From TrEMBL:
Organism: Rhodovastum atsumiense
Protein name (record): AraC family transcriptional regulator
Superkingdom of the organism of origin: Bacteria
Transmembrane feature ranges: none
PANTHER family for this protein: HTH-TYPE TRANSCRIPTIONAL ACTIVATOR RHAS-RELATED, TRANSCRIPTIONAL REGULATORY PROTEIN
Length: 282
């Protein structure tokens, strides 16, 4: 994953899937009229975002969702004193087409360029946060699929239809794959192929039906169990983080404390009476 930090408090993240996420705050900056090759899906967090699209000026206030099609001309500027803060996802055409492959019906298009859809706005925020700080492919895929599911009605597509009934074999194979490569970073598509699922959406449904959670959440849980064991054996938190597939010691610390209420260093000291002489990272 590549990150590019630009002036005026703009953070741009480019994901391996081709999706880009921007989190920006502008006070005086204004975008000239321009176009993108991607589908733009954004949410205004603060202030008023004024933009021209489809021949009319729009005013996006906090919570409003902005939807702009590829090659649709638009600009952007503050619509009130104090500027505005927004998050935006740039979804490549092939990525969106693959996600809508189950729902034929001609070329998709947004019904409106500005709408009030709080669940979609929350999904956009969640995806931007995950893309900006997570090294876990499953987490990023799940967050982007959450956006895709919420986008379907705005594109004139019905909710995704999945085969009825459970598929315990698919779920079991995926679970075994996660246990076999605890420190790996599988994507949802790769895990679905390994499990024999038709696609990542079938895998997600089968896994939740069998185990009550998502593949990513399950992977985090078994990584934490392994981390507890290694820490109780006296391994240093930094070494445990690497062995269990966490991005770094800080990543392990955040997850471990949220799950167990103590830092990895404190748990290691409790189990072994060996203090971590380095500064513990929570």
């Amino acid at each position: 994953m590549k990150r590019l930090f630009l002036p005026d408090r703009v953070q741009l993240v480019h994901d391996a899937s081709g999706v880009e996420a921007i989190h920006a705050r502008f006070s005086a900056h204004a975008y000239d009229l321009h176009r993108h090759d991607d589908w733009l899906v954004g949410v205004t967090d603060q202030g008023v975002q004024d933009f021209l699209c489809r021949g009319a000026r729009r005013r996006s206030t906090p919570g409003c969702v902005i939807l702009i099609e590829p090659q649709e001309a638009h600009d952007g500027q503050a619509g009130a004193a104090g500027g505005f803060v927004y998050r935006m996802l740039y979804l490549p055409r092939p990525w969106l087409a693959a996600g809508l492959a189950d729902a034929p019906g001609g070329e998709p298009g947004f019904i409106a360029s500005l709408c009030d859809d709080p669940p979609l706005g929350q999904a956009i925020r969640a995806a931007c946060r995950v893309l900006s700080r997570s090294g876990e492919r499953l987490a990023r895929d799940a967050a982007l699929d959450g956006v895709l599911d919420r986008l379907r009605p705005h594109l004139g597509r019905k909710p995704r239809r999945l085969p009825p009934g459970r598929d315990d074999r698919v779920a079991r194979r995926a679970r075994e794959r996660l246990h076999d490569d605890l420190a790996g970073d599988p994507g949802a598509d790769a895990l679905a192929r390994a499990a024999g699922a038709a696609d990542r959406f079938q895998l997600a449904r089968a896994f939740r039906a069998a185990y009550g959670t998502s593949p990513h959440a399950y992977l985090v849980q078994i990584r934490l169990l392994r981390a507890r064991h290694l820490l109780s054996c006296g391994l240093a938190p930094a070494d445990v983080a690497a062995a269990c597939g966490f991005a770094d010691q800080s990543h392990l610390g955040r997850r471990f404390r949220r799950a167990y209420g103590v830092t990895p260093a404190a748990y290691r000291a409790l189990c072994t009476d060996v203090p971590d002489r380095r500064r513990a990272i929570a």
